[in-house]
């Protein structure tokens, strides 16, 4: 499986070397030491919280569970990986890695985390990147996560290499298997807990390996945007189902949402309309497009559906301008995706960190950059019937443009979100999600 990744990974490292060399030269550093992170113990316990590696570390290597490991990078020199392999009988020590990527590194094996100092302390003008710990104070670092350097490294993270895109394609295929299994569990009458477990089994990943906690909502629960519960008992009448769930491959995430209706009813027709408009939005992911314009397009498309189904009386442009569309679509249309689900530098428009603010009236949009080839974004328009937002609208002038009988008809179904992951290219956008679903038997 990994053989085809080797050549693209080698090219990926060359690109990261160039980016890092330019960032170091521009900010006055000669080297960088990247700390993968360590365990944090829970309060009054000897159990650690789930470990999530520093994404800057993941950018260079897919090493699994790199607890207390380091990468030391110096321009023109071999990459150095300080690898913690403790002598331990309480836990299984990590095996020495041997994979498609390992020949790119000089490994320095240590038995205790503190022994990393011997491989780092003598590196001149070295910037530290990662979660700081007090024990690093006398290791000789010139800067801790220095902002000018971080801006430059974050800015270029948006432009995915072919290796990164292939990792995200594979994550998408894993997620698609999970989504198909989750739909089957919903059709079979499963509870939210049953559906979630079906998803996990189908992806082959543990809950800690997934890029984010799954959102699994039946009926009105799907109107809670980040619904976190998993009811063990199926509802007496199962009307609808929303699942927002992903997967990851070598640290790269897929982030996918689908919505289903139990019957071939008006809500199913509403889902179909949303799916059609969502695919239209995906086609707008092109180099040179301001992502905020896609967000506005999503509001117009959602408002168009709301009017066609008799939920509102306002025209789409009017609904966008007045804020009426936000009553039913309160979040942003998406975000950058990669090593992090909400990947960094969504508002950074220049390498030195210049920011572009969100459009007024749209406080939850996570991305304001102009897309360029290699940018991978989520496209996730939503249409929800949320009590708090509806009650606020009812007592405002917006309430006169809402058909409350139609709202009452759809409220028990909760809401709809359809989400794909799409890469901007030099030509047509590449949808990473739809082919993955089509490939699932």
- Write the H/E string, N to C: HEHEEEHEEHHHEEEHHHHEEHHEEEH
- Label the overall shape: globular
**Average pLDDT:** 97
Structural class: alpha+beta
Strand order of the largest sheet: 4-3-2-1-5-6
Number of strands: 14
Gyration radius over CA: 24 Å
Q: What proportion strand?
A: 15-25%
> Low-confidence runs (pLDDT<50, min 5 residues)?
none
In short:
34% of the residues lie in helices and 15% in strands. The protein is globular, with a radius of gyration of 24 Å.
Provide tags for this entry:
alpha+beta; 13 helices; three-stranded antiparallel beta sheet; 441 residues
Task: Set out the fold topology.
Elements: H1 5-27, E1 31-35, H2 55-58, E2 70-73, E3 79-84, E4 105-110, H3 117-120, E5 126-129, E6 143-144, H4 147-157, H5 162-187, H6 192-203, E7 215-218, E8 240-249, E9 252-261, H7 266-282, H8 291-308, H9 316-322, H10 324-328, E10 376-379, E11 382-384, H11 387-394, H12 404-410, E12 415-417, E13 420-423, E14 430-431, H13 434-439
Parallel strand pairs: 1-5, 3-4, 5-6
Antiparallel strand pairs: 1-2, 2-3, 7-8, 8-9, 10-13, 11-12, 13-14
Helix pairs in contact: 1-4, 1-5, 5-6, 7-8, 8-9
Explain this structure to me?
The protein is of the alpha+beta class and 441 residues long. Helices cover 34% and strands 15% of the residues. It has helices spanning 5-27, 55-58, 117-120, 147-157, 162-187, 192-203, 266-282, 291-308, 316-322, 324-328, 387-394, 404-410, 434-439, and strands spanning 31-35, 70-73, 79-84, 105-110, 126-129, 143-144, 215-218, 240-249, 252-261, 376-379, 382-384, 415-417, 420-423, 430-431. The strands form 4 sheets. Strands 4-3-2-1-5-6 form a 6-stranded mixed β-sheet, with no helix packed on it. A 3-stranded antiparallel β-sheet has the order 7-8-9. The protein has a 3-stranded antiparallel β-sheet with strand order 10-13-14. The chain is globular and about 70 Å long. The model has no long low-confidence stretch (mean pLDDT 97).
């Amino acid at each position: 499986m990994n053989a085809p990744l080797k050549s693209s990974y080698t090219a990926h490292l060359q690109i990261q070397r160039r980016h890092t060399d330019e960032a170091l030269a521009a900010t006055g550093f000669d080297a960088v030491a990247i700390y993968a992170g360590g365990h944090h113990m829970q309060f009054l316990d000897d159990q650690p919280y789930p470990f999530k590696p520093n994404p800057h570390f993941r950018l260079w290597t897919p090493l699994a569970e790199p607890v207390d490991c380091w990468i030391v990078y110096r321009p023109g020199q071999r990459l150095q990986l300080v690898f913690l392999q403790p002598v331990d009988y309480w836990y299984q020590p990590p095996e020495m890695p041997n994979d498609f990527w390992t020949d790119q590194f000089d490994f320095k094996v240590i038995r205790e985390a503190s022994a990393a100092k011997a491989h780092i302390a003598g590196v001149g003008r070295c910037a530290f990147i990662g979660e700081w710990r007090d024990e690093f104070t006398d290791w000789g670092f010139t800067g801790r996560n220095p902002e000018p350097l971080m801006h430059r490294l974050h800015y270029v993270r948006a432009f995915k290499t072919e290796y990164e895109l292939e990792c995200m394609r594979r994550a998408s295929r894993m997620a698609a298997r999970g989504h198909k299994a989750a739909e089957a569990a919903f059709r079979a009458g499963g509870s939210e807990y049953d559906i979630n477990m079906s998803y996990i089994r189908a992806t082959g990943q543990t809950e800690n390996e997934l890029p984010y906690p799954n959102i699994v909502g039946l009926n009105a629960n799907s109107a809670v945007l980040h619904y976190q519960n998993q009811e063990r008992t199926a509802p007496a009448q199962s009307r609808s189902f929303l699942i927002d769930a992903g997967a990851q491959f070598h640290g790269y995430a897929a982030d996918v949402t689908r919505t289903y209706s139990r019957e071939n009813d008006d809500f199913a027709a509403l889902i179909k309309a949303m799916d059609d408009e969502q695919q239209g939005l995906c086609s707008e992911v092109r180099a040179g497009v301001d992502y905020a314009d896609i967000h506005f397009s999503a509001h117009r498309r959602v408002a168009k559906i709301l009017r066609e189904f008799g939920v509102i009386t306002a025209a789409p442009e009017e609904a966008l301008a007045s804020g009426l569309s936000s009553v039913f679509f309160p979040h942003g249309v998406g975000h950058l995706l990669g090593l992090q689900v909400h990947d960094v530098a969504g508002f950074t428009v220049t390498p030195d960190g210049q920011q572009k603010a969100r459009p007024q009236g749209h406080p939850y949009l996570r991305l304001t950059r102009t897309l360029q080839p290699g940018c991978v974004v989520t496209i996730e328009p939503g249409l929800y019937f949320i009590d708090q937002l509806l009650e606020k609208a009812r007592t405002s002038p917006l309430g006169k443009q809402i058909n409350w009988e139609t709202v009452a008809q759809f409220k028990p179904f909760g809401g709809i979100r359809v989400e794909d992951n799409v890469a901007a290219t030099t030509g047509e956008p590449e949808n990473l999600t739809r082919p993955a679903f089509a490939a699932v038997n």
